[in-house]
């Protein structure tokens, strides 16, 4: 096989993409220019070779990968790194040429440290980038490696890469489909298309042409409706089949997505942009200070006047002092720690800078099923002739009180369905036979028609005794629950999972919900089945939408069996002659059925997005049933009397919201973050869940559907995404448009997804979030974050941690920047005030840079969330780390720390306290005092910076963060060790041990720095109370950027192929 052809107009498949699904088998063969005997003979060897040359191999074009050298260059292509390299080169020259041993040692030490810092930062960056672009690789790994085809009339096995359009491919159970196929023969064939859609239900296949209904263009027919097609990389779940390859390589559906994943630009996060910007400003400041220091040294100072080389060295010392060598490492450490914390809470972040993006999210777009909901179908309510029972879907204990009579629960139609007819309610609800958009319905008992009366408000309870069997607010007995739900338990072949959960369960989720409710009401499921052994059954069929089982039961009259029938409620009502009073069984409790009441209850429950199932029962003569018989449907719907059943009650079933999501959404709203729900489910179901979660309210009161979005212009959808929080029956195409529309309106979006077709939307969003349990590998590789528990509450937790990271990065800058600035300014101002020599040496500067970054910087990197962090609104788009108030704090910290260091040096030099020392000893004492004031003053800055707004003058200053005490003690011990260790203090650090007066100066400086920083904080708290934006979140500043107003609303090329889902018919 040759190299992959480049995707473009030169490939014939680009222009040969016909609507294969609308063609007959003969038409497909003719359109491809092949012989009529193709199904039997396949392609000849020569024809296959010719087509391989024409169309290219069946493989996807790979994105050009970045080389190691390119990755290294990407990491070191930074102005601050250039400064460090320049200093390292000059220091290397100095180390090689100087004769002074002290100077040589200092120079080599400086070179080693700078090279180590650059190497470490480069390695960290390359390591993180290694995980950034694996989506294409994941797609490639999904493809088949071999395929069975017919060539020259014989069945042969060939490499999948040699498949060409026109090949006849044979499919068997478990096979991975090698190309996009038009099926020509199927035998109970179903394919699992989870690799494309994330949907676990296999799709049954046919061979007939698919007509275009409702005036749709052939290209508009969703892939999910093209059931005569099979797609590359999907699996044969059952049966076998034969298909003609109609697309290969980049022109398959999976190949189209591969191109979108490769071509969708990954958004660079704010922090990455800001670090670049800060580096440029620092470069300008460093160059300015270097020049100023050189001129002061060369023209003004006593020690370096007219000494060009000495002046250059002192200028470079200033540069080394001001370059934050450890800043990038501490920023990475901040991210890494946040990633570790979030991973412990099931939020796995794949790219470190994406953590910060979370903190600026303004809209979270979430899937519904399994993310906002529990992904467990549960019996929510049970309606009888006179009462409504609310079931606790979050129950953990097996007690009857889990079910409580609540006649106000779901007692009226949902507000949005008050004026609708039954058929209109049915169209928007989960009982619609069309199922979810993009998914085969797992609810088999859908309703065909629902004709309600014109005045539903006039319908009252079908049975007037309001206190039977229990009063409102009370729980029924276990025996009543056992009898009422017996039909749902016995008329079922489902097996409940261990402990009532999903693990090990077998059967339809809707039917399992009744078993689960019975289980948690304290009913012994196996005992009930043993007490009522099955005699015969009418198996379920989607044609008649009911199931019936015949049982021996102790409560049946002599000579009678008990028949249990459950099914679509509209059909059940038609077969019922009686209703059970208050859901109680027994002949004494049967009365004539009130059909209007039951039809309205079905409409009410459907309007709230609930699946509805009718439970019925009756007695039948034992002579009429043969033991072990498989009865036909006529046993139920073909009886002479037609109406013969007794309606016991209606089961209202749904996938309920996760209880923790309600609080999480409330917390998100409190933080100014909108939550939007995007689902393939029905409009009423989505709206009902939205109400329960607090997503639907007076401001965002309605849902919009995917077909409605499809019909909107770009301007209309931009308005729509700002006025709606619920998007129902949505397709992957809709997701991309929603993301782009929100971004065009200046919103920072988080988008969840699980299927391969979600990958482009995940990459287009500011923060793509993939499902860890139910999602596909491709979706996970295309995302920035993975939810290990598929839980929405985890996203909100991650948003909180993203804000913590932002705050901590600002705190890191507040600590590191004044320290670095002070080191350089101490050199500069030390010469201006004519100190005998610079107050701190290059070795002391390098040590302070290192120790402050590793210890004090680490304190800020791992700070926990401050109180009230989720009560603040999201940052304005374009806000930078250094806002005006942080900028003022940095200046204030720089000035006060520089003033204390230079002031301490002046006191030592000119106060007369140390006149008893010789000139060299006095200079060493000056450097000892200056060095300790600098590092202990840094401790004061750090302790104040721990709390951005709250006062640090409390005992909590050393609590809440284990790193605080460790770092303060470490710095203190090291300072004392360096100050008093003979040889180390004098030879390496050019200082001497301090006396009590020296320590008094250090302590005084610490107090002054801390007091000044806390005073500024108190002033800001006062301003904030008056409504001033002291958070640096809203008001613009010179470092801020303007939000992008030219977001391209065009769909990525090939995105029209993403409509893998079925439209409502």
Helix content: 40-55%
- Give the overall average pLDDT: 82
Count of DSSP-assigned helices: 35
Globular, elongated, flat, extended or rod-shaped: what is the shape?
elongated
Unreliably modeled segments: 1-9, 131-136, 435-442, 1053-1065
- Rounded to the nearest angstrom, the radius of gyration is 37 Å
Distance between the termini: 45 Å
What is the number of E strands? Answer: 25
What is the makeup of the main sheet? 10 strands, mixed
Going by helix content, strand content and strand pairing, the class is alpha+beta
**How much β-strand is present in the residues?**
5-15%
Question: What does this protein structure show overall?
Answer:
It is built from 35 helices and 25 strands. It is an alpha+beta fold. Strands 10, 11, 12, 13, 14, 15, 16, 17, 18 and 19 form a ten-stranded mixed sheet that branches. Mean pLDDT is 82; it is low at 1-9, 131-136, 435-442 and 1053-1065.
């Amino acid at each position: 096989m040759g190299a992959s052809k480049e995707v473009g107009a030169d490939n014939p498949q680009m222009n040969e993409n016909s609507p294969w699904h609308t063609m007959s088998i003969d038409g497909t063969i003719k359109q491809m220019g092949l012989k009529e005997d193709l199904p039997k003979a396949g392609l000849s060897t020569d024809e296959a070779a010719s087509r391989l040359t024409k169309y290219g191999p069946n493989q996807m074009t790979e994105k050009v990968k970045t080389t190691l050298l390119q990755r290294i260059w990407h990491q070191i292509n930074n102005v601050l790194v250039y400064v460090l390299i320049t200093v390292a080169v000059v220091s290397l020259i100095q180390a090689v040429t100087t004769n002074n041993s002290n100077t040589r040692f200092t120079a080599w030490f400086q070179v080693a440290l700078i090279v180590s810092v650059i190497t470490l930062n480069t390695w960290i960056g390359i390591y993180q980038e290694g995980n950034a672009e694996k989506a294409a690789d994941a797609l490639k790994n999904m493809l088949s490696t071999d395929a069975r085809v017919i060539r020259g009339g014989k069945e042969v096995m060939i490499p999948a890469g040699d498949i060409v359009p026109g090949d006849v491919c044979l499919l068997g159970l478990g096979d991975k489909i090698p190309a996009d196929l038009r099926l020509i023969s199927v035998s109970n064939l179903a394919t699992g298309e989870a690799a494309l859609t994330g949907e676990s239900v296999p799709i049954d296949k046919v061979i007939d042409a698919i007509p275009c209904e409702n005036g749709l263009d052939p290209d508009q027919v969703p892939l999910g409706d093209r059931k005569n097609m099979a797609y590359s990389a999907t699996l044969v779940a059952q049966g076998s089949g034969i298909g003609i390859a109609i697309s290969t390589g980049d022109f398959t559906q999976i190949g189209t997505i591969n191109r979108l994943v490769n071509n969708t630009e990954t958004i660079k996060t704010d922090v990455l942009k800001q670090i670049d910007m800060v580096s440029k400003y620092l470069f300008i400041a460093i160059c300015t200070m270097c020049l100023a220091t050189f001129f002061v040294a060369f023209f003004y100072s006593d020690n370096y006047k007219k000494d060009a080389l000495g002046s250059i060295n002192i200028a470079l010392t200033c540069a080394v002092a001001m370059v934050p060598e450890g800043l990038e490492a501490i920023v990475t450490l901040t991210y890494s720690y946040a990633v570790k914390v979030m991973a412990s809470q099931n939020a796995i972040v794949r790219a470190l800078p994406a953590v910060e993006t979370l903190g600026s999210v303004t809209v979270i777009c979430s899937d519904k099923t399994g993310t906002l909901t529990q992904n467990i179908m549960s019996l929510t309510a049970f309606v009888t002739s006179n009462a409504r029972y609310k079931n606790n879907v979050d129950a953990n204990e097996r007690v009857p009180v889990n079910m409580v009579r609540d006649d106000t629960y779901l007692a009226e139609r949902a507000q949005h369905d008050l004026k609708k007819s039954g058929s209109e309610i049915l169209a928007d609800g989960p009982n619609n036979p069309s199922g979810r958009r993009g998914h085969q319905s797992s609810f088999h008992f859908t309703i065909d028609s629902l004709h309600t009366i014109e005045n539903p408000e006039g319908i009252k309870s079908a049975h007037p005794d309001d206190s039977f069997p229990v009063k409102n607010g009370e729980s029924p007995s276990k025996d009543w629950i056992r009898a009422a739900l017996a039909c749902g338990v016995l008329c079922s072949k489902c097996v409940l999972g261990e402990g009532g959960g999903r693990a090990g369960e077998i059967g339809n989720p809707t039917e399992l919900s009744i078993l689960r409710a019975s289980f948690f009401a304290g009913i012994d499921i196996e005992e009930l089945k043993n007490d009522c052994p099955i005699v015969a059954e009418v198996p379920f069929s989607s044609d008649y939408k009911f199931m019936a089982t015949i049982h021996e039961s102790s409560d049946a009259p002599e000579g009678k069996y008990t028949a249990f029938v459950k099914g679509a409620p509209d059909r059940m009502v038609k077969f019922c002659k009686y209703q059970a009073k208050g859901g109680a069984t027994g002949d004494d409790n049967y009365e004539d059925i009130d059909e209007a009441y039951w039809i309205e209850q079905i409409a009410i429950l459907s309007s709230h997005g609930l699946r509805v199932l009718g439970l019925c029962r009756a007695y039948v003569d034992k002579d009429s049933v043969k033991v072990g018989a498989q009865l036909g449907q006529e046993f139920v719907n073909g009886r002479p009397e037609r109406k013969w059943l007794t309606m016991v009650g209606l089961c209202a079933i749904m996938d309920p919201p996760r209880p923790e999501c309600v609080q999480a959404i409330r917390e998100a709203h409190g933080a100014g973050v909108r939550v939007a729900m995007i689902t393939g489910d029905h409009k009423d179901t989505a709206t009902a869940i939205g109400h329960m979660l607090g997503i639907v309210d007076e401001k965002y009161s309605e849902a919009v559907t995917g077909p409605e979005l499809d019909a909107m212009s770009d301007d209309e959808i931009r308005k729509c995404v700002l006025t709606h929080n619920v998007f129902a029956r949505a397709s992957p195409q809709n997701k991309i448009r929603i993301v782009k529309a929100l971004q065009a309106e200046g919103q920072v979006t988080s988008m969840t997804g699980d299927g391969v077709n979600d990958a482009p939307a995940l990459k287009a969003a500011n923060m793509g979030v993939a499902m860890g349990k139910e999602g596909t590998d491709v979706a996970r590789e295309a995302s920035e974050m993975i939810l290990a528990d598929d839980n929405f509450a985890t996203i909100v937790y991650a948003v909180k941690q993203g804000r913590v990271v932002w705050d901590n990065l600002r705190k890191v800058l507040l600590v590191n920047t004044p320290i670095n600035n002070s080191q350089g300014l101490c050199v500069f101002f030390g010469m201006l005030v004519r100190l005998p020599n610079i107050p701190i040496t290059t070795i002391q500067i390098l040590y302070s840079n290192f120790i402050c970054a590793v210890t004090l910087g680490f304190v800020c990197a791992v700070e926990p969330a401050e109180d009230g962090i989720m009560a603040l609104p999201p940052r304005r788009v374009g806000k930078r780390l250094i806002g005006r108030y942080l900028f003022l704090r940095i200046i204030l910290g720089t000035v006060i720390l520089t003033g204390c260091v230079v002031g301490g040096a002046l006191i030592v030099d000119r106060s007369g306290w140390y006149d008893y020392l010789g000139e060299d000893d006095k200079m060493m004492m000056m450097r000892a005092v200056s060095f300790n004031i600098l590092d202990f003053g840094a401790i004061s800055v750090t302790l104040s910076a721990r709390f951005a707004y709250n006062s640090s003058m409390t005992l909590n200053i050393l609590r809440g963060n284990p790193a605080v005490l460790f770092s303060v003690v470490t710095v203190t011990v090291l300072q004392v060790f360096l100050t008093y260790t003979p040889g180390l203090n004098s030879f390496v650090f050019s200082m001497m041990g301090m006396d009590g007066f020296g320590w008094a100066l250090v302590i005084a400086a610490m107090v002054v720095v801390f007091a000044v920083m806390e005073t500024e904080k108190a002033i800001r708290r006062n301003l904030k109370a008056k409504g001033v934006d002291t958070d640096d979140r809203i008001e613009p500043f010179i470092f801020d950027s303007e939000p992008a107003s030219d977001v391209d609303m065009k769909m990525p090329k090939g995105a029209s192929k993403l409509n893998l889902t079925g439209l409502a018919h």
